[in-house]
Amino acid sequence: MGGCCTGGPVPVDLPSIPQDIIQLSETTSPKIVNDLLEVMVKSFTGTTKVPGEPMLSWAFDPDGNVDGDPCNPLKEEPSAERLATMRFVIKYCYYHLLKHGCCFALMKNGSPVGGVFMCPPNSKGAHEESNCYFMWAMMNLGMTSSMSSGDSAMRFDAMDKACKAAHKKCLDGKNDPHWFVNVVGMDSEYQGQGYGRELFNFILSCGDHTSHKMYLDTFGPRNQRFYEKNGFEVKDVSKVNSKKLELTVHGGGALGMLRAAKK
């Protein structure tokens, strides 16, 4: 799955996987996979009570969040188009990284409550999607009109370019192997129960186990504070500018954040 020229999997060296975390593969129960993807979609979409992923919220609708700030909850409950767009994003990331063996679900009472999709350290630039994979995803993963046409498509493109620019400025994937923490999501219904900490402790253990740097991109002061508490530092801020609109709140940039390798 994933197109004709996406390249093969890269070797991965993992720490001991905790009992409540499962490593996903093409043989994983479809129900578990679908349930996890929906948890991630819910996390990235947000609600009128809980914010979603800020840059994606801005790209979909700059005026859709309280006070025009994408770090705030939505003004209205998510539309079918917003959910479908976030579903495409989550599936796009999942199927791109699945073959590398670094997609994981945190399970509680037999159901996923959160997950992470990562790319392991490599010298192939495996975190970068091929044009072939992009075309496959467009045809098979339900790309929405919000991402393919109009002003919103230009904003999504601007966001993508900013995130990739931050990544390249912080690291050269082919000459500086590192863990790329691409997607992390938790079901907001389980906030305050320590599940997010449990999942993130495992994420950090992957970097510690192989003694590699870890990279992620994010946006907004709340996310920045969380990752800084976990040892990440802002190494680059890449502005998000589209032809129609510029992201201006909170500095208006994708934050490239790096966690140093454990010696």
UniProtKB/TrEMBL annotation:
PROSITE patterns reported for this sequence: GNAT (PS51186)
Recorded GO MF terms: acyltransferase activity, transferring groups other than amino-acyl groups
InterPro entries: Acyl_CoA_acyltransferase (IPR016181), GNAT_dom (IPR000182), Trichothecene_AcTrans (IPR052523)
Pfam family, one: Acetyltransf_7
Domain N-acetyltransferase: residue ranges: 174-262
Record-given protein name: N-acetyltransferase domain-containing protein
Phylogenetic placement of the source organism: Eukaryota, Sar, Stramenopiles, Ochrophyta, Bolidophyceae
